[in-house]
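Throughout our pipeline, every protein is held as a single compact record rather than as scattered files. Such a record has a labelled line for the sequence and another for the backbone structure tokens. The remainder of this section carries one protein's record, kept here as part of the documentation:
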Amino acid sequence: MQTNKLIELNGQAIAGGKFPLICTPLVGRTLEQIMTELAVVLPKQPDVLEWRVDFFDAIGDSAAVIAAARAIKQAAGSLPVLFTRRSTLEGGEKIALNEDQVIAMYAAVCESKSIDLIDYEMANDAANINRVRTAAKANGIKLVLSFHNFSYTPGLETLSGKFLSAEQWGADVAKVAVMPRDLDDVLTLLTATREASKKLRIPLISMSMGPYGAMTRLFGWAFGSALTFAVGASSSAPGQVPIEDLHTALAILQKSMGGK
């Protein structure tokens, strides 16, 4: 059974079908800082860029957000851009927007077609998830529905349910990220990933965070995770490793596994 499902844009696998993809975050608070980050990150050859807009000081100004998204996209060239507002409940920065304003910003950015993928959290109201999905689909933007727990790792049944819920709610990609308290928690996340990779029709992303979970960023792909996050200039979550180290580790592991 083929369990490695590729993330696609416009019917084509990103980076020619590379597995896993490497995504680096952009967390600058101003456009100038983001451009400086890009100058550092792009030579390190990521496959995807994630713009964490919750770090952006001008997040309340949709025109400024769209202008920045366009500038990022222009600098990125052929690299896909993932647009993410991470909520404070799931590890994000505090912002002065309510959820209706966030969704209005999401809709405007989707309509600008200056991004390729957009992340929204499954913990939000079903009506809001529907609104984001509608805006994404109408503009050809891929929807990542995500779940994060920065406190602990829920049980296997709960994690499996999160992956399944993302697919049922119309996601193009399902994402689960959790914090382990011990190595058994890391095994729980990897088991859930492996099981979901065999059951879901859509690609998935998973990771265990923090020091214990750092290993999943190196070999989670072997269990079915289609994308891993690495530090290009600045980290956006605990346990992310430098992209140079990740490139090296992936090359060693994949060679050892016969290119699998």
About this structure: The helical segments are 31-41, 62-76, 99-112, 126-138, 156-168, 183-199, 210-219, 243-256. The mean pLDDT is 93. The longest helix spans residues 183-199. The longest strand covers residues 142-149.
